[in-house]
Amino acid sequence: MNKIVTLNRRAFIKTAGAAGALLLSHNSFSRASKPPLGRVVIVGGGYAGTTAAKYIRMWSLGNIEAVVIEKSAQFVSCPLSNLVLGGSKSINDLTFGYDLVKKNHGVKWLNDEVTTIDSAAKKVIMQRGEISYDRLIIAPGVDFIYDALPNLQSAEAQQQIPHAWKAGWQTVNLRKQLEAMPDGGIFVMNVPKAPYRCPPGPYERACQVASYFKTHKPTAKIIVLDANPEIVSKKGLFTKVWAEMYAGMIDYRPNNAMVEVDVSSKTVTTDFDKVKADVLNIIPPQRAGKPAQMAGLTETDYPWCEVSFLTYESKLVPNIHVIGDSVSAGLPKSAHMATSQARVCANAIVALMSGNAPDPTPVFANTCYSYVNDKQAMHVANVYRYDAGKKIMVSADGGGVSTSPSEQEGQYASAWAANIWSDVLT
Amino acid sequence: MKLKAWFLVNLLITSAGLPLTGNAADAVVSADTLSNTFHIRTLAASCAACHGTQGNSTGITPTLAGVDARYFTAQMLAFKDGSRPATVMHHHAKGINVAEINFLANYFSQQKRISSQPPKTQTLKANHE
Ligand SMILES: Cc1cc2nc3c(=O)[nH]c(=O)nc-3n(C[C@H](O)[C@H](O)[C@H](O)COP(=O)(O)OP(=O)(O)OC[C@H]3O[C@@H](n4cnc5c(N)ncnc54)[C@H](O)[C@@H]3O)c2cc1C
Questions:
Q1: Has residue B18 been placed in a domain?
Q2: Range of the domain at B74
Q3: Is A192 in the pocket of ligand 1 (CB under 6 A)?
Q4: Which DSSP symbol is given to B25?
Q5: N or C: which end of chain A has fewer CB within 10 A?
Q6: What CATH code is carried by the domain that includes residue A172?
Q7: Within a domain: residue A77?
């Protein structure tokens, strides 16, 4: 048996001590309470960040301090938020607090917004204070790019034309507009150029709106303007569902990137078409969240963060890890994926901070459900494995999609949501 | 030194359920065992989205915590070769190898069964985005 190499505790404490437990105005915890292996600060308490904090606490047996900085006071799930548009869920079914995960795992929490990251000084600056770190995890989700559609940048424009791509009042707003739309009206939505958050999400949304129209506004129509050449995820399944369940309701137009949007008349111009909507939903193109940009984790020509898939440490800035939608992974940006990346990252950080080597061959599973109406769902499932030659996660043999949507899978999808919420938030 | 031994020993007990004998503080842990622990616990944890943290499901998905290791292995092998039909699990079973299935079987068999609950829902506050 090989003896494990020394933990190198002294070195850790030295680095940790040098960085200092500086907390200027959030003085709820002090140097004295600093656990022996140092502090990890996590920016963003969504699916990725909250999971990383919980598992760092669990797997370090409380020996690493985990501090989450999250600007929102509540967790609102994007998964299942399309069902709010369909009418089978309320936003209050998807809204949770952070109290249990904080209490059960001793995760420290700052309800504040990060404004600056000083990687040289290993310090994060918020609106109401600053905090130093030994390692930093950036998990801010996505940021919308308005370069091509500058008139949609304002809050007023987004009131009229919601994105509903971050769940919350935007989702409620879009649902209200759909309710208010007269029968016979036209709902227009777009699909941004991939990669974007949740590849099947826009097509699931079209199903949910169609499901609502089918019973409540049977002569209303849906136009889907897709910037991509074809349906990005579960293509065969969505094509079949649209043809069979929603025949004549969904007009799908691939290769139709938006060129211009007129906010007051809700008119969209694409390379080929000009369409006027009664209700318009624009999902802007996306990039890594703002904190990732602040820390200099993206290159100018590519807006996602390149990382090592063994540790999720940035390839550009040492001691900063990136997880969740902000990562350039070439894999679907899903909540399940975000939690898996979070655990590989947590595992690696616990190993590194206790003087051990990270797992050289991470492997994890991902299942992504889409609801086609209020009861039936379908999945895409894959195992992803680290390829040491290519240095990326590649999908293993045997992955695939449902043969067709079913109520049984609808129940599995709802169990998926309950379990992932419980895993992330308790 | 004390920290190291305590940390690693607890890590193995709580994370991998690996058997330990003798005086825990003097335990010498093989590098292989430790690396399997690190490898398997992330794979096992990725099952949590459907089967709950440490295999304690809150929904209709089966709880894996405390499941007999031989039963677990047999089911996974049956999903893998198609002899047990499935909606989703064949996609996962085919993607992991037999050694990993055995480690997962051992891991889940050692987890405590607890009743796990989804978090309580709240009313969305006006100041949320
Ligand atoms: C309509 C829709 C449906 C979806 N359905 C599914 C599904 O069925 N299954 C699935 O697996 N995935 C689904 N997804 C995708 C899933 O929501 C994302 O992949 C997941 O949320 C990514 O997690 P994350 O932690 O990277 O980002 P998020 O969950 O968005 O978390 C980021 C957090 O960072 C915080 N933050 C950002 N900037 C700052 C700052 N400066 N300071 C402090 N805090 C900050 C934000 O407030 C936020 O809470 C869906 C997405 C959408 C939009």
A1: no
A2: 34-112
A3: no
A4: G
A5: N
A6: 3.50.50.60
A7: yes
* B107 sits in which H/E element: helix B98-109
Residue B108 lies in a domain: yes
Total count of domains within chain A: 2
Give the E-state strand segments of A1-92 in sequence order. Answer: 39-43, 65-70, 75-76
For chain A, positions 89-128, list CB contacts with chain B under 8 A.
91-97, 100
The reply to whether ipTM tops 0.85 is yes
pLDDT digits 0-9 by tens, B2-51 = 445 445 545 554 444 443 333 433 344 555 666 778 899 999 999 999 99
Cβ separation of B91 and A381 shorter than 8 Å? yes
**Ligand 1 pocket, residue A96 CB under 6 Å:** no
B6 alpha carbon, distance to own chain's centre: 22
CB distance A325 to ligand 1 below 6 Å: yes
Nearest chain B alpha carbon to A423: B53
pTM listed for this prediction: 0.91
Cα separations (Å) of A24 from A16, A53, A68? 17, 22, 16
Verify whether the Cβ–Cβ distance A383 to B14 is below 8 Å: no
**Number of separate domains in chain B:** 1
Asked if residue B2 belongs to a domain, the reply is no
Q: Containing domain of residue A118, as a range?
A: 9-143+287-357+415-425
DSSP summary character for residue B121:
B
Nearest CA in chain A to B90: A398
The answer to whether the CB atoms of B119 and A397 lie below 8 A apart is no
